[in-house]
Amino acid sequence: MAVRLGLETPIKYIKGIGEAKSNAFARLGVETVYDLLSFYPRGYEERGKTVSISDAFDGELCSVIVTVRETSAVKRLRGNMTVFRSLVEDENGAMELVFFNCPYIAKTLSSGRKYRVYGRIRIGHRGKEMVSPKLEPIIKGVELPYYIPIYRLSPPLTQKAISQAVLEVLPLCEAIPEPLPESVRTSHNLIKQSEAVRIMHVPKDEKELSLARRSIAFSELAVFRLALCNMRSNTDRVKAIPLGLKNVGSKNFLESLPFELTSAQKRAVKEIFSDLGKDRPMARLLQGDVGSGKTAVAAAAIYLCVKNGYQACMMAPTEILAAQHKKTLDKFLSPFGIRTELLVSGLPAAEKRRVREGIADGSINVAVGTHALITEKTVFNNCALAVADEQHRFGVKQRAELLSKSEIDGRRAHMLVMSATPIPRSLSLIIFGDLDVSLLDELPPGRQKIETKVVSANDTEKVYEFLRKETETGGRGYVVCSLIEENEENSDRRSAESYFAELSNAVLKGIPMGLMHGRMKPAEKAEVMNDFATGRIKVLVSTTVIEVGVDVPEATVMIIENAECFGLSQLHQLRGRVGRGNKRSVCVLVNGGKGEDSADRLKIMRDTSDGFKVAEADLERRGPGDFFGVRQSGEFSFACSAISDMTVLKETDALIKEIRENPNDPEYRTLFDSAKKFLERTGGGLTVN
Ligand code: ADP
Ligand code: MG
């Protein structure tokens, strides 16, 4: 039965999409036609920019127009593998194309045919070759596209399957509503949303693509910022319980801590206490580099809250972190008769029930748990303060959920969000437009500096030898790589699984090792992490999932493979997993990149240990996309995060100001509507007036 497609139609009605594909799309967050249209490519292969064989250098990913000269017979290799080679040439050179397990291609590649081939050049025994290139036949009268979009994948989806589905619905771009009034588009030189979205999937050239990106980025940002402004003004309108400083002995508490607070911590505590004393809910972000001592600041806020007679809760992204926070808070707070309990799904049912009862009747003062447990299923007696440790996540959705959660007699809880991602101030104003910010820009004294080294991919043997020695003297180490398993598309980036296999068979033979990646279940991950923390495992090979990990003071070595593939800020986060004990720690960045640019970038890491400086450098070099994109961890992300400079952000500044000065101008209605929808989508129960 043919269904007339609209923007809201579920994608299973698109031709060629069955159950399996539709499920895979769902995993990528694509459920409707509109989702699919806004599922922008994560990159493009610039196949229209061709080079000649003689100019192509070793390791270059490039596009070449070639004519087939000869084709070898298909040869059988060990196992079920087959290989065949084809000699191709252009005006001034020749190279071989190598194909594994593609006997059918051998049939089509006949002598004299012309192709555009795309792949990575390498120098083999017989000279230049390209392994498993992508082939496009050159046919008279048919123009090959300049850019080929590359989408994020989830099996069994392939690039081709996604492209086909997108092309199927591309005409529906026409129906995409326009958030920006024409006057704004004209004055900022933007194209219509419908046009921009279409172009993202089939850009003709660089110029068109960058205009489309800019237009989408602009409207997304405008909508997002307007939504945050709304959220903020809603916060300002509701009441909260003022938590006073009188007779609570907060000075005693601060003096009881095992260390003297840094001046940054003192300043943050002061700012927070001042917020808590008001009858408006605090909405504050505590931003500080890894190890800057956010927990102690949070503990002070919790102390004040409990001594005023109310409960507090603290939420962490993982059970491991929750357990860690519970331990720390207990240490700080129990001497003052404050009862803290852990609430995570790993607890026995009876225990969970007991804790929930204690939270409901008020006998438990502080509940520490994961987001889900605290926000969804727990009823408090009188919670007046919610602390969220986001590590490096700062989903607007979670913020909104938190806000809407704990209300007592129509009064809302104060909220403190802790983030370990240093974000340059210019950006933080945008991303956290709804929050006040306290900055911990100073580390406690006596910290071990983490020595950072950059080595080339050829020098890793020494690096692993060093890691082996460290483990023999009681140390532990992480090996981080960027992907889970080898796949065709990223054949040059080696995966956690292959590293694990290789290391445990060779340089690290005999050393207890563990493997961790994002596709494992939380319980499996927790087990591996726990083995590493207790020392049963000495080397942990993993993808970036360890970013949000536990504190393992014995870990002294961090090796990051293909470091060039990570953003600087992300590298900084990863690096923060070592140097937590009193032993000298080393972070080794393995540069698998060829260009000067990656070497330069990694040098910044070597020379800078301040997270904010690293973030600034990241912003300068890679643009803000990274901060909006990767780091949003799927909660909500700017679909068009590839904006390369700050100008779009600054331009939206002016617009938002103008709108706020003229909120009733009918011109801006559509923008307000979009902002409202945005909040409904991300904000769950948040009321939007
Ligand atoms: P993060 O900001 O990464 O959450 P933590 O709160 O976990 O940092 O603190 C890191 C470590 O530093 C903890 O062991 C904590 O006890 C210690 N610490 C915190 N503040 C100070 C301080 N002012 N002086 C010395 N050590 C401190
Ligand atoms: Mg912390």
Layout: helices, strands, pairs:
Blueprint: H1 19-27, H2 33-37, E1 43-46, E2 61-71, E3 75-76, E4 82-90, E5 93-100, H3 103-108, E6 114-124, E7 127-131, E8 134-137, E9 147-150, H4 159-169, H5 182-188, H6 193-201, H7 206-237, H8 250-256, H9 263-276, E10 283-288, H10 294-307, E11 311-316, H11 319-333, E12 340-343, H12 349-361, E13 366-370, H13 371-377, E14 383-391, H14 396-405, E15 407-408, E16 411-412, E17 414-419, H15 425-431, E18 436-440, E19 450-456, H16 460-472, E20 476-480, H17 496-505, E21 513-516, H18 522-534, E22 539-542, E23 555-560, H19 568-575, E24 585-591, H20 596-607, H21 611-622, H22 625-628, H23 647-661, H24 669-683
Parallel strand pairs: 5-7, 10-17, 10-18, 11-13, 11-14, 12-13, 14-17, 19-24, 20-22, 20-23, 21-22, 23-24
Antiparallel strand pairs: 1-9, 2-4, 2-6, 3-4, 4-5, 6-7, 6-8, 15-16
Helix pairs in contact: 6-7, 7-23, 7-24, 9-10, 10-11, 14-24, 19-21
The structure holds adenosine-5'-diphosphate and magnesium ion.
Residues 259-262, 265, 288, 290-296, 420, 444 line the site of adenosine-5'-diphosphate.
Give an account of the 3D structure.
The protein is built from 24 helices and 24 strands. Residues 629-637 and 683-689 have low confidence and may be disordered. Adenosine-5'-diphosphate binds next to helix 10.
